[in-house]
Amino acid sequence: MKNFKFILLGMACSTICTIIFLLIFSLVLVKNNINEKWIPIVIIALFGCSIFCGTTISTRKIQKNGAMYGLIIAALYLIIMYIISSIFTKEFSIEKQSVYMIISSLLLGSVGGIMGVNIK
Questions:
Q1: H or E stretch covering 1
Q2: Phi and psi (nearest 5°) for 64?
Q3: Alpha-carbon dihedral of residues 31, 33, 36, 37, nearest 10 degrees?
Q4: Is the pLDDT of residue 95 over 90?
Q5: Is residue 33 predicted with pLDDT exceeding 90?
Q6: What is the pLDDT of residue 48?
Q7: So what's the pLDDT on residue 42?
């Protein structure tokens, strides 16, 4: 039960990082002329970085099974974000970019978890 608190902490940190990164990216989009093909790639990278930050912070507190807890945090975060985005867009589909986001986020969540456990 104690680790559940840290899982929620990791998801909260990931959410805060996502919001900050997306705000910065939206400002960059407003000020610059960026080709639209780069937007999904950047968003996938932003989600991955956010999950990496969240899992690193939470597994630093848990101090064991970093890869497993990183995967759990990343999976829960992705499920919640998918549900929220599907409600707003009224589309419940998985596209090629969604698969890339899932794979990269789970990998970065696992790596972030391992990093968090090993940071002293």
A1: none
A2: -160, 155
A3: -110
A4: no
A5: no
A6: 93
A7: 92
